[in-house]
Structure formats: structure tokens, C-alpha cells
Amino acid sequence: MGVFSTAGGTEPTGHEQVVFCSDQQSGLRAIIAIYSTALGPALGGTRFYPYANEEDAIHDVLELSRGMAYKNAMAGLDLGGGKAVIWGDPDRDKSEPLLRAYGRFVESLGGRYYTACDVGTYVQDMDMVARETRFVTGRSEAHGGAGDSSVLTAYGVFQGMRAAAEHRWGSPSLAGRRVGIAGLGKVGKHLTRHLLSDGAQVVATDVSQRAFEWARETYPQVDLVDDVTALITSDIDVYAPCALGGALNDDTVPVLRATVVAGAANNQLAHPGVEKLLDERGVLYAPDYVINSGGVIQVADEIEGFNFERAKLRAGKIYDTTRQILLLAQEEGVPPAVAADRMADRRMAEVGRLRTIRLRHER
Ligand SMILES: NC(=O)c1ccc[n+]([C@@H]2O[C@H](COP(=O)([O-])OP(=O)(O)OC[C@H]3O[C@@H](n4cnc5c(N)ncnc54)[C@H](O)[C@@H]3O)[C@@H](O)[C@H]2O)c1
């Protein structure tokens, strides 16, 4: 695989810029990928992960940065899409010099890329990175940061689910509906609260006993089942994947009882074509990157100086965006995932084109 083509192919990946960053003394090996700056500086988190090899790291950063461009475009942000990976074991390799070296590389891009947290990086890491660069979000509240992004992620997922319910049943209320949540983590817990206060019945599962204990103590009215298979084959109206990616695949889609899927997990469709399987089975799928964008909306707000109410207002718009996508999908006879990609492409092209209107200071 080369940087200018996809794995094994000759098609260009479409990325604007891919930067390899190395600092031997601290052990930093990072790759920053900028997919698009059509809408503004590229925003996306830093994944710290022990990839098996360099090729896997490149593949991941190229895929993730493209995903961020679509997510940010549909979130209505004036931000493009980018992502970074640090190749290493976060438990073993993370250090002050490594994070600060990384911060200097982010700074060297002059604001073309803003970083944030992702798998393996946390708010305190972003506080450290911020000692070397201005172009960082997702810092701790003590440092003017937005704090835990799962708060608005869950709120946005709930809004997306309401829009899907409206499209399917004619009312945005989840009252009386049975919603199955797979994964009672940071997002799943907040989502449970929103659903119960709307009058929904919640059935949930997790692989962690602590999550079960939390549910028994906090919300005894939640039904708990052993695993995801038991959840998706039970009598639920809505399935909310809130754990790992690939939840919708050749094994799960055929046995799904829910007729709406709306959850927080990234990359829910295991491979291209699953969106068609869902459509054929009459399952309405609210595209993951559209309805889980509350978190990026929360951290993006930090760039202006964090204001929770402003960020919440923006995350609330996920309801309207999801409705528009579901209507477009219906009109154009395509699955909602395809309609979402089309809308994002259109916004990047239309708003991006405005940059061709030359300003006085541009020569
Ligand atoms: N936190 C955010 O702001 C945010 C934003 C966008 C997308 N997401 C995505 O949403 C999902 C949940 O994020 P989170 O922050 O709540 O993560 P988390 O790690 O806090 O929670 C995930 C939960 O899923 C459980 N889990 C793992 N494997 C499982 C399985 N096979 N079956 C059932 N449960 C399982 C874990 O035990 C954990 O309780 C992830 O896919 C994440 O990428 C999160």
C-alpha cells in the first residue's frame, strides 16, 4: 500500500496531506492525516495504539481521518476532517517528552490540524500536548476544556433516535417503545437516562459486571440480558449499539427484531453492503457518524471558548439533520447511510467552493 493509493489498489485515497512524525529520543512515531480542509481546519482525535505494523497504522489513520471529514461536515461544523495515530503501547510508551514532541509536530502544521482525545489518549494527555501547541481540544475543564464528551454524544444519539422514531412511527417520542442498548459505558449510561425520562422501556447488556451492577443500583427498571445475541433477538423496537464497531454484520442483521437502529458506536456497518441488507429487511438505520457527532460538537466548541449551552443547542440539531437524511434517502430510494454521505459531500463541495472567492489580502 502506498500513501497515494488505497490498499492494493491504484485509486487515490483523496487525502490532502499525510505527515510522518518521528522523534527517536522520546520514541515518538506518529502519523497525522488530513483528509479535507474544505470546511476549515481538520479536527480529529489522536489514537495511541500498538499497531502490528506500519501499514496497519497508515490504513487506520487514513480511514479515520476520512470518517472525521464526513462527521464534521454533517455536524454543521466549520471544520474539516483529520486524525492522528501514535504507534505504540500507551501504557508503556506514553511519556511527557513523547506527548510534547507530538504537540510540537501538531503546532508545526500551523493550525491545519486540531487534535483531541481518542482511544488511548485522555484529557490529561491533551493538557500536556497543549503545552506545545495551541491547536488542541478535549482538554480538562480546569484548563478551559470541554470535559467528558460522552455527555453530548448521548444527548445527540437520543435526538437522532427521536428523529428515526418520528420517521418510522410518526411521533418523535420513545414512550412505550422497547429500546435495546448494547454497552452501558459512558455513552450508554447517559442514553439510558434520556430514554427512561422519555418513557421508554430499556433492555440492556454489557460484558462488564460493573455495568450490570450500576444498572441494578441506578435504574432497577432496566431489563438486563446476558449478551448482544439475546438482546437483538428479543422483542425490541430500537437497537442502540453503544459498544464496539461492526455491530451490524451478516450474522446480526438477519436476526434483528428491531426495526430502527440508532446508537453511538463508530463504524457500526461491518462492511460495505450491510446498509443494503438493513434496507431490504425494512430496518431504518440512523447513520452512526451523524447521530454520534455530539461529542465532536462538544470538543469543537472549545476552540471558541467552551460554552456547554451553546454546544448542547448545536447537538440538538442532530434531530433535524437526521430527519433530513431519512427523508432524502426515501426520496432518492437509497439507504440512509448513502444519503448521509451524499449530503456531507455536497456540503464540503458547496461551502468549500466559497474559498475560491478571492479576498483582498489573498494574492
Ligand atoms: N464517548 C464519546 O464521546 C463517543 C463519541 C462518538 C462515538 N463514540 C463511540 O460510542 C461507543 C461507546 O463509547 P463510550 O465512550 O461509552 O465507551 P466506553 O468504553 O465507556 O463503553 C463501552 C461499553 O461497552 C461495553 N462492551 C464492550 N464490548 C461489549 C460487547 N461485546 N457487548 C456488550 N458490551 C460491550 C464495555 O464493557 C463498556 O461498558 C464507542 O464505539 C465509541 O467509539 C463515543
From TrEMBL:
One of its GO terms (biological process) is amino acid metabolic process. Keywords: NAD, Nucleotide-binding, Oxidoreductase. It comes from the Bacteria. The active site is at K83. Pfam families: ELFV_dehydrog, ELFV_dehydrog_N. SMART domains: ELFV_dehydrog. PROSITE patterns: GLFV_DEHYDROGENASE. The keyword NAD applies. Residues 147-356 form the Glutamate/phenylalanine/leucine/valine/L-tryptophan dehydrogenase C-terminal domain. This is Valine dehydrogenase. It comes from Planosporangium mesophilum.
